[in-house]
Amino acid sequence: GSCTHCKGTCKSCTHCKVPRRSCTPCKIFHGSCTHCKVTCRSCTLCKVPCGSCTHCKVTCRFCTYCNVPHGFCTSCKIFHGSCTHCKDSPGSCTHCKVLHGSCTHYKIFHGSCTPCKIFHGSCTHCKVTCRSCTLCKVPCGSCTHCKVTCRFCTYCNVPHGSCTHCKVPHGSCTHCKV
């Protein structure tokens, strides 16, 4: 189809190779891919689609497996692509059914989405205690089910390491390539 905003032709989703509303001319992610469920999100600071935030000039990175936002904006101190259902406030996200809560200092989401089982550990910026692993219900770093010890990049605050249960990297860091 074509983008109703700038009349550009949609590109194909790089994850599943089917068309999705990603407008090449204006660089705005219009809608979502109905095949792999990669949904568009907006910057919680300026309310514009991810990838086109003119305030902090950061392009969002999403894990193609679990659709969790990667990358930490050092300008506005918030994650781009935060849950648009619960609007950065405590409460259950209607999408993943998990209490999302947020750090009152930097507004960083803690906890994890139960479908993707990611984001273990604690916030290195505000030292908020991590929640239990949503997969095995034990403290992060000692999960005997997925055998992973959380490692956080102090720059982008995303977990490093590989879970032997889901066989994919837990939030590969786009800055240091770990």
Indicate the proportion of strand residues: 5-15%
Strand order of the largest sheet: 1-2
Structural class, judged by helices and strands?
little secondary structure
Count every beta strand, where a strand is a DSSP E run of 2 or more residues. Answer: 6
Order of helices and strands: EEEEEE
Helix fraction, binned, reads under 10%
- Number of helices in the DSSP assignment: 0
Give the uncertain stretches in residue-range form.
1-10, 12-178
The main pleated sheet reads as: 2 strands, antiparallel
Our count of domains comes out at 2
Global morphology: globular
Mean of residue pLDDT values: 37
Provide the gyration radius in Å: 16 Å
First-residue to last-residue Cα separation: 37 Å
Can you give a write-up of this model?
- The chain is largely without helices or strands.
- It folds into two domains: 1-40, no CATH class; 42-178, no CATH class.
- It contains no helices and six strands.
- It has a two-stranded antiparallel ribbon with strand order 1-2.
- The chain is globular, with a radius of gyration of 16 Å.
